[in-house]
Amino acid sequence: MRLLNYALLLLLPLALLSAAELQVSPGNDSLSAVQKSYQAGDVIIFAPGEYHGSFRSDRGEVTLRAAIPGSAVLRGDVDAPAFSATQAGIWMCPWPQIPEAVNERDSFLIYKYVPNLIQLAKSLAAWTYDETKGQLYVRTSDGEAPDRHYLTISTINATGLHFQAGSAAEGIRNLTIEGLVLTGFNSRTKIFSGVTSSHRNTRWGAMITSVRENVVIRGVSAFLNGYGIGIGNNSQGAVIENCRVFGNRTPYNYSAGGICIFGPSDNSRISGCIGADNHGHDVCVYGGKLTNFKFAENICYGTLRTKATFADPDIFVDRCITTGASHIRGKGTMRNSVVLNSIDFPEDYREDNILVRNNPDLNLDRDFADPVNFDFR
Fold first, then answer.
1. Which neighbouring-strand residues pair with 354?
2. Average pLDDT over residues 292-308
3. Alpha-carbon distance values, 71 to 74, 75, 76, 182, 211 (Å)
4. Exposed (0-12), middle (13-18) or buried (19+): which is 104, by Cβ within 10 Å?
5. Alpha carbon of 299 to those of 118, 173, 343: distances in Å?
6. pLDDT > 70: what percent of the chain?
7. CA-CA distance, 5 to 114, in Å (whole number)?
8. Does the pLDDT value for residue 373 go beyond 90?
9. What is the rounded CA–CA span in Å between residue 220 and residue 203?
10. Taking a C-beta distance cutoff of 8 angstroms, is the pair 125, 104 a contact?
11. Model confidence at 11, in pLDDT bands (50, 70, 90)?
12. DSSP letter string over 233-299?
């Protein structure tokens, strides 16, 4: 029996035999060190706490996992210092450099940048910066003092978790990301000025490009980033499931939103995800041909978007709930779903969908369990 066990070990790939469980913790350089040194098959365990910094790699073959789901937070922002009043409704704090973004975390808002104090006085949820004096000025969403809110300042112009292969042919394979929270990653300026409709124009909580096989993002939350969780063009075998995205916003792209897989894409899916208050769209797919693609049991408090070509529309959008539905074309592309408000091309929807705005006989409070909380049993 012992000889048989040894023989079986010899059949295992060398990478699996050498795989290790690597522990990282906040307040030291363990995260920075491990992203440079991990080996194929390693599992990186994030201890609870806040990590200020990003994680970037040109290879997969690794698992990133929160020791306790939702307890490990990767931040591109820091808590704002105390502010002092300068004029009616405008507050100032010293700050050494122009921020990437200013966030009102308690309201899931990213403030708008304005060029001067004159414009700031006319705005709410906005900020400006005096580079000469090194001073940051803000007006909160309700004009009240900043200490009535929870303000943070984005300082890292990078995507929180960014996996980008050295070559498209090599691609990213065998990557799992589980239970992490990503927030505060943004860019004050448009990153690629020549690209008008691309995931490259802003920073994401997580973005994986050149996915080739077995990439899973599970139970991840992303809020107050430029955009939330994304998979780049030409992916194969990508899964985003049971993720949450809130308040991700940028002025530089309208094609994505909270969660997005950019087509073409094969053998991929988005399922069990929830999105709210994201710029553009809460959960979406965009561009190109989708083959064997599943889009199921997603809840969008804003808009669900599927602007793509479907090779197999009968199994595409299933059991979703959304306030608005955008660019869903083809009989059978959506089934067993609820659309509360705006829809494109209602003639393409099958009878097993509930189109609330198109059905005046429906009474939400009477006919469903708890429509306020999107429970349509």
1. 338
2. 89
3. 10, 12, 16, 11, 27
4. buried
5. 40, 28, 15
6. 90
7. 67
8. no
9. 17
10. yes
11. low
12. SSEESEEEES-EEES---SS-SS--SEEEESSEES-EEES-EEES-SS-SEEEEEEEEES-EEES-E
In the predicted structure, residue 162 carries a pLDDT above the cut 90: yes
Q: Does residue 181 contact residue 73 with C-beta atoms inside 8 Å? A: yes
**pTM given for the model:** 0.91
Residue 351's Cβ-count burial label (10 Å; 0-12, 13-18, 19+) is exposed
33: helix, strand or coil: helix
Residues 214, 57: Cα–Cα separation, whole Å: 16
Q: Which pair of tokens denotes residue 159? A: 């995507």
Phi then psi for 351, rounded to 5 degrees? -70, -15
How many CB atoms neighbour CB 76 within 10 A?
Answer: 29
Tokens representing residue 232 in the block:
């780049």
**Per-residue confidence at 203, pLDDT binned at 50, 70, 90?**
very high
3-state secondary structure of 83: coil
